[in-house]
Specification:
There is one protein chain. By secondary structure, the chain is α/β, with parallel strands linked by helices. The chain has 2 domains: 9-134, 3-Layer(aba) Sandwich (Rossmann fold); 147-296, 2-Layer Sandwich (Alpha-Beta Plaits), CATH 3.30.70.270. Helix content is 51%, strand content 21%. It has helices at residues 3-6, 17-29, 40-49, 66-76, 94-100, 112-136, 147-164, 178-185, 187-204, 229-246, 268-288; strands at 9-13, 33-37, 54-58, 81-87, 104-108, 168-176, 211-216, 219-225, 252-259, 293-297. The strands form 2 sheets. It has a 5-stranded parallel β-sheet, sandwiched between helices. It has a 5-stranded mixed β-sheet with strand order 7-8-6-9-10, with helices on both faces. Helix 8 crosses helix 9. It is elongated. InterPro entries: CheY-like_superfamily, Diguanylate_Cyclase, GGDEF_dom, Nucleotide_cyclase, Rev_trsase/Diguanyl_cyclase, Sig_transdc_resp-reg_receiver. GO terms for molecular function: diguanylate cyclase activity. It comes from Desulforhopalus singaporensis. Its EC number is 2.7.7.65. The modification 4-aspartylphosphate is found at residue 58.
């Protein structure tokens, strides 16, 4: 069994029991993990509780049909792709199915080789898109997550901390005197400072727990889940000390540290902005207080 296909979950949706069983055996023989549903409504319940990569759905089904299921998936299951299967007598074109949002369609009776090829192509394209998505969220210079990743992850982490009732700290880290250093030594040396700080952030934080980001220019951020204010202070002081020990000329760090507590009286987006603004203010206070220090706001 191919490890790349074995990790792909395919959901077969068809109201014909014989077709369901036949396709399930076939898809499993290709090396995929296969689930089945006899109706679109059942498929919805499956997807609400289980991650599904690909749905192979019949077009004509009682009550909720294949196109209605496709519309639901496009709206609610953004990481799930759909292939529609149709009988030869059904008056719908390839263009109509693709325009509705499916990635492919296949005619019944389904040919084994054709189905295997379509599933393989869909799996390959999904893997390529995931890689591109991953690359789009990495800073090209430092190889740590970028601002796009930060903006997406921040709200998710704050909400998770609120729901599970654990502390979450945010540190905004800015390099002092970086422009002067760049002007004096050149951008190549400046890039070494940025890469060096990214490595320091990773070395001083908890692997697979904390997440470090380069927001752009000489500004970085660190999310510290399940860290109390005291623990957050210890971590950022360790970052500050390590940076000084590396000795990047006249540059130092100004760090703003805040506790990320969800304010349910504010809309989520507005609350996120308020927390980020507070962290920025704390960082600027550190600069105004002589740089090379940490300021905490609550």
């Amino acid at each position: 069994m191919n490890a790349k296909t074995a990790s792909t979950v395919v959901l077969i949706v068809d109201d014909d029991e014989l077709v369901r069983k036949s396709l399930s055996v076939l898809v499993h023989s290709f090396g995929y993990y296969c689930l089945v549903a006899e109706a679109a409504e059942e498929a919805v319940r499956v997807m609400e509780s289980t991650h599904v990569d690909l749905v192979l759905s019949d077009l004509v089904m009682p009550e909720m049909d294949g196109l209605e299921l496709l519309a639901y998936i496009r709206k609610n299951q953004h990481n799930t792709d759909v292939i529609i299967s149709t009988g030869y007598h059904e008056k719908i074109s390839y263009a109509e199915v693709i325009h509705a949002g499916a990635i492919d369609f296949i005619k019944k009776p389904i040919d084994q080789a054709e189905l295997e090829a379509k599933l393989a192509r869909a799996t390959r394209e999904r893997r390529m898109l995931r890689e591109l998505e991953k690359l789009s969220k990495l800073d090209s210079l430092t190889s740590i997550p970028n601002r796009r990743a930060y903006d997406e992850m921040f709200s998710v982490e704050v909400e998770r901390a609120y729901r599970q009732n654990y502390p979450l700290m945010l540190a905004i880290v800015d390099i002092d005197n970086f422009k002067e250093y760049n002007d004096q030594y050149g951008h190549h040396e400046g890039d070494k400072v940025l890469v060096g700080l990214a490595e320091i952030l990773k070395d001083c934080t908890r692997e697979s727990v904390d997440v470090c980001f380069r927001l752009g220019g000489d500004e970085f951020a660190v999310l510290l889940p399940q860290a109390t204010p005291g623990q957050g202070e210890e971590i950022v002081q360790r970052i500050l000390q390590s940076y000084m020990e590396h000795g990047f000329g006249s540059t130092t760090l100004s760090i703003g540290l805040v506790s990320c507590r969800r304010n349910k009286n504010l809309p989520r987006e507005e609350d996120d902005m308020a927390i980020k603004k507070l962290a920025d203010q704390a960082m600027y206070e550190a600069k105004e207080n002589g740089k090379n220090c940490v300021r905490t706001r609550s």
